[in-house]
Each structure stands twice: as structure tokens, then as C-alpha cells.
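Sample A.
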Amino acid sequence: MRYEEIRRVITARMRAFSGITQDCIAYPNQMEVFEPPGEGLWCRLNIQHGQAFMAGMADQPYIYWRLGYVERRKNPNTLH
């Protein structure tokens, strides 16, 4: 997933959240300025990007899980 796709998924989950009314949620990069209510709950959605890293290449990933730790193998078709 690209950053924009991840942002859309997170925003959609926040819009589906029913624990607080949507007018009490501050979304980033909106045209209108958010005014927090004088009383009651409100929240601000803040998405911070992290370091991107490659988890795989071509049609097969190069990192495999074994016994609870990550093991890097030269040949992904072998067990050892």
C-alpha cells in the first residue's frame, strides 16, 4: 500500500467510528477550520508517517517467519 492508500483507509475507519460525533473530530488538511466544542469530547486525527522499508521483491517475499522470529534466507524453498 502507498501512503495515500493507507491515509484513506485510516480516515475511512475514523469516519465509521461511532464513539464520538463526526462534528467533534478534527481531520487533517480540511478546507474549513475546526472549532473544538466548548464542552464535551473532541479529538484530532493525526497520521504520522514512518520509515518505509522493502518487505519483498518481485513475486516472492524474502523474509520468512519461523518459530517466532524473522529469518532471512537465500533460498526461500528450503526449510534450513
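Sample B, a different protein:
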Amino acid sequence: MTSALVNRISWVAVAAGMIAAAIIFFTAPPPDDGTDLDNPLGNKRYLSEMRRIGGNANVLASDFRDWLSDQFQGRTLARTIFILTVLVVLGFRFVALPVAHASTMDEPDRGK
């Protein structure tokens, strides 16, 4: 695999991720106003029950689960896809470029 091929694959992956993120961002409904009356985590009595039954770790785990589920909805999904795309491409380049460089060093010089 040559470095030119690695660059081409990287650009295609970043472009596909940006296009997917843009489509999701512009087609997602606007975020709600934040007044979520059905959310039991906003109720102090519910939180104290959770803390009593499972401790602070239970409340933190519930908060993390809610935060994570929010990352995969609406416009934040577009941001999540873009960030994951960039991270995957950087990881691919981290692995592929040393391999591409090593493979070009191993090839004999055919021009002489």
C-alpha cells in the first residue's frame, strides 16, 4: 500500500463522514426546549431513592447513560459521527502510513 493510496482512502473517508454528518445535521429536527417533565432524573425524590438503593455510582451511571443516549439523537448525532470519522481516519493513518513507508523501503530500486 503506497502513501498516495493511504491519502486517497483517508480523503474519501473524511468526505463521506462530513457528508453524512451534514445530511444528519440539516435533516434533524431542532432540539426541544429542555423542559422534560417526564424525565424522572429531574425529580429530587427519585434521585434520592436511586442514591439510597444504589449509591452515588447508581446516579452517576444513570447520568452517563442519559448523556450517551443524547449523543446519538438529532444534531448531536452529526457531531458524534464527524468526531468518530476523524478518529477512525487518524487511527487508519497511524497504522497504514508506517506500513506504506516500510513497504516502499523494502522494494528494490528498479530504476538503476
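Observation for Sample B: The first helix runs from residue 3 to 27.
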